[in-house]
Amino acid sequence: MMKKSEVNYELYLVTDSTEKILGSRDLVEIVRKAVEGGVTIVQYRDKDSDAAVQVANAKKLLKVTQAHGIPLLINDRIDVALAAGADGVHIGQDDIDLPTARKMLGDDAIIGVTACSVEEALTAARQGADYVGVGTVYATPTKENAKSIIGVAGTREVLRALHQENREVKAVCIGGINLSNVERVNFQLSVLDSTRLDGVAVVSAIIAAADPKVAAKQFRHSLAHPPPFIGALTQTNILDALSQQTPFLSVIERVATQNPLCHNMTNTVVQNFAANVAIAIGGSPIMSTQAAEAVDLARLGGSLVVNMGTVTPESIAAYITAAQAYNAVGGPVVFDPVGAGATGLRRATVKKLMNEAYFDLIKGNEGEITTVYGVTDVQQRGVDSGVSTSTLEEKARLVRDLALREGCVVLMTGKTDVISDGRRTFTIENGHEFLGSITGSGCTLGTTIAACLAVAKEDKLLAAMAGVLFFEIAAEVAAAKPGVVGPGTFGIAFLDSLYALRNVAVQRSKDGVFLAR
Ligand code: 3NM
Ligand code: MG
After folding, report:
1. Does residue 248 sit in the same domain as residue 202?
2. Residue 245: band (very low, low, confident or very high) from pLDDT cuts 50, 70, 90
3. C-beta 501 within 6 A of ligand 1
4. Residue 175 CB–ligand 1 contact under 6 Å
5. Is the distance from the beta carbon of residue 142 to the nearest atom of ligand 1 less than 6 Å?
6. Is residue 235 part of a domain?
7. What values do phi and psi take at 335, rounded to 5?
8. Could you list which residues have their CB under 5 Å from ion ligand 2?
9. Using a 6 Å cutoff on CB, does residue 413 contact ligand 1?
């Protein structure tokens, strides 16, 4: 039997013998290939075969796993595990209870338990489970009777609770994990210091794969590498940036000279103004809301704004397809959860989008950011911000905590903007009240930030701050212009000011005041 301390849970293969997934192929051969490809632990899961068949299969599988020094566990059946001499069992909430299983198998056996909730996970941990299988992360045809789909957010809650208990118990997640989401899910579940994911459990994405060895190899590769949207961080010192302004201007200059694609999925009211803002700062706007072209657009090196102005089944599906396409190539995605707390549909949409995609930056007013954080008792008046009751310090803590939890940049707009990447938190006092009197100023701030992110991926906080300052200083300049008397004249002057500021940045660059990277 394998020593428990040597078990690696990184890529946990759960088998399936059904027609739907295994088909007519030979289970032992499939597992052999998967193990050769890098699976680190195997669970034999067979809900249909008789005990004698299960014992025979388990013995064959054991030869394969033992040859590679990895453990074999048996799903549900303690008798089968004992008869075959397997390394342990995996039990669900409806199987023989953990204390009994432990008595039957002894201390050296590996025993894992399925946990759908914090309570189930903590109970398993306290009763001495070696690991918990947390899920169901995503609905999956492999287990149609799954009790609860808890998503990335629910899974993270369970991991955090386990961590707070300070238990030795290991954790893997399960349900719908495949090669197109494993990098993101692994990142989303491991980003917090206070959660720890020891591995991912997979059925169909390996068992039903055309080549299980290749699939397993690809999983191991994905698990060992950060997702494309994380990229390679360079150490930009943002305090230098603040004192010199130079890096901010450099970001603006890069937008003006590189003309990044600004892909906006936004509501019809704002499209015209957002496109004009994008052009004024040097971006190349495209206002497509079509999922069908998002994959092609994502390859053009720009960035995406998902403005949740419209929430229909079609628009939600399109937001997800587009965000995932940008995630796949490392193109920045800005999420504007418009009116997030206003309706149940919008709250559910926020949850769904955050579950299915990664957002490099989340921007919103206090109510929206509070909703995204998950405080459900905030009822917003409409899509505009309500009256704030929290102090600046409380806002800063919320923004920082959300950024930490999601591993992204969070911007809370308001009279004082608060921005954080979890490690660094700043306030910005610029802007003008006229911005609140024209349609789409929040949406076009998203457009401006997205353009900056596209050209300065190495420090997303710096890029986003450059975008905010660019936008808000242009508003101040515009409001101070002679002839600007109200929202109408302001709107026109604002576009001119953005354009003028951009030219200042380009001119300073040409003069050698700073060197664009
Ligand atoms: N247990 P696939 S979900 C066996 O939530 C199993 O406990 C689950 O299959 C749980 O990787 C699941 O093909 C099936 O989505 C996972
Ligand atoms: Mg079971």
Report:
1. no
2. low
3. no
4. yes
5. yes
6. no
7. -110, 125
8. 76, 92, 95
9. no
CB 231 within 8 A of CB 330: yes
For 367-393, what is the mean pLDDT? Answer: 68
Instruction: Say if residue 143 is in the same domain as residue 268.
Output: no
Please report which ligand is nearest the Cα atom of 47. 2
ipTM over 0.90: yes
From the DSSP assignment, how many helices (H) and strands (E) are in the chain?
A: 20, 16
Asked if 162 and 262 sit in the same domain, the reply is no
Amino acid at 37: G
Residue 54: which domain range? 4-224
Whether residues 245 and 380 share a domain: the answer is yes
Which three-class secondary structure string do you get for 63-76? HHHHHCCCCEEEEC
Amino acid at 109: A
* Residue 240: per-residue pLDDT: 53
Atom of ligand 1 nearest to the CA of 201: 11
Query: Is 229 domain-assigned?
Result: no
Q: How many domains does the chain have?
A: 2
Ligand 1 pocket test, candidate residues 136, 138, 158, most atoms within 8 A of CB: 136
- 275 and 162 inside one domain: no
Angle, vertex CA 314, rays to CA 312 and CA 319, nearest 5: 95
443 is catalytic: yes
CATH code assigned at 90: 3.20.20.70
Contacts 24+ apart (CB under 8 A), 84-87: 84/54, 84/55, 84/58, 84/59, 85/1, 85/59, 86/44, 86/58, 86/62, 87/1, 87/2
State whether 54 and 193 are in the same domain.
yes
Q: Which of 199, 224, 249 is the last residue of a domain?
A: 224
Q: Which long-range contacts (CB under 8 A, 24 or more apart) does 89-97 make?
A: 90/14, 90/43, 90/45, 90/114, 90/133, 93/120, 93/147
CB of 43 sitting under 6 A from ligand 1: no
Q: How far is the CA of 180 from the centre of ligand 2 (A)?
A: 27
The 10s digit of each residue's pLDDT in 41-69 is 999 999 999 999 999 999 999 999 999 99
Whether residue 133 contacts residue 110, with contact meaning beta carbons closer than 8 Å, is answered with: no
- Same structural domain, 177 and 246: no
Degrees to nearest 5, angle at CA 340 with 488 and 399: 95
Of 224, 256, 282, the last residue of a domain is 224
